[in-house]
Specification:
The chain is of the alpha/beta class. α6 crosses α11 (about 305-320), α8 packs parallel to α9 and α14 crosses α15. About 40% of the residues lie in helices and about 15% in strands. The protein is globular and about 65 Å long. It has helices spanning about 10-25, 35-45, 50-60, 110-125, 135-145, 160-170, 185-195, 210-220, 240-255, 290-295, 305-320, 325-335, 345-365, 385-390, 420-435, and strands at about 65, 70-75, 95, 155-160, 180, 200-205, 205, 210, 225-230, 260-265, 285-290, 300-305, 375-380, 395, 400, 410-415. The strands form five sheets. It has a seven-stranded mixed beta sheet, sandwiched between helices. Strands 13-16-15 form a three-stranded antiparallel beta sheet, with helices on one face.
Length: about 450
Amino acid sequence: MLGEYRIEGRRAAEIAASVERGVGSGRLAPGRLLPPMRQLATELGVNANTVAAAYRSLRERGVIETAGRRGSRVRARPATTSREAIGVRPSAGGTDISQGNPDVALLPPLREALTAAATRAARRSMLYGDPAVDDGLARAARAALDADGVPDGPVAVTSGSLDAIERVLVARLRPGDAVAVEDPGWGSLLDLVPALGLRVVPVALDDDGPLPGDVAAALRAGARALIVTDRAQNPTGAVVTAGRARALREVLTRHPHTLLIEDDHGHGIVEEPLHPLAGTTDHWVLVRSTSKAYGPDLRLAVLTGDPVTVDRVRGRQLLGPGWVSHLLQDAVLHLWETRAVDAHAVARAYGQRRDALVRALAARGVPAHGRSGMNVWVPVPDETGAVARLLQAGWAVAPGARFRLASPPGVRLTVSRLTADTVAQLADAVAAALRPGEARRYE
């Protein structure tokens, strides 16, 4: 079963460490079946509960996964192996459109905001015991959420969207619970969920967001949580429309105990209106980060939700980092108050590039998806071949394997670095790489 590798240890921690060493060295390959707990306990001369504790620890850290009577296996992608590692480096003189970064020319200068935050800190420093969330930031965030029709709820601040989602999942779920996620979807999220010991249930989507039938099937099958990207879905650019939101709310009303997490990371860079699902279930949160509009290094997100869930997030946060730096909170508030970013202009800039690329691809017989945000998703028949041919043509694109679970192959193109001149060049390269007529839709 394990070949020549022998699991060792007398205590749960030692057994878990032995498995991790095997995974790290490659001697326990992804997908390798581990011995049944009782069998391994007999071999090691320990109690079966000791092995059970070791396996549970490994599941919670995302090293192994358990499928009921089919046993425990090394995860196909252990938590230490990020999907971001799946990629290519651009050749000399090539263009990298694989990383999903915003256009730095559209990001605001931070000197004034950081100076204002430092000036305020000089007048009154943040001390232990002070409120974790700045009152001004909370009021501004809540006002923006109110304007978008998000139900009332307290505000918390985290170090980005993924930090918020992780804290909510840990606050509400237990290892082994199932989480419904978009497929294709955000690669970091697809890594995070199993790393927490949770099971991923893929949900298909189209340009209007998650398919209600797939969501209903996932919830009927026992998924305890649903994660939805409202706008600028990564990688497809999907937007939850008013009609799709109504259909999804109808599904969720039949499953009121579902934990609903909405990721509105596109806030500030999209013009499409928000159609929130929040409030349909007993437990919900909506998360907004500042990364796309103000820069990835400004590690801050605000979340709101039902009071119990937000209180759990805040309480657990106090036992770890405590709070997100008030210097960052004050800087973000300054950016909001001074309107340092013209959201409409930024959205138009990305929209013009994205729409131009989708049109150029269509003119060359290549279907593509990109209704909002900064990414375009192109279904392909041969992902590896398409990525390699585009690299040879001077374009480094993101392989769809970063974002897929059960959905067909594709590649993601980020438009941030494109200009009017390079759109046609990229479209030509994509058409040549895909051999038009063989591309398939991602639904």
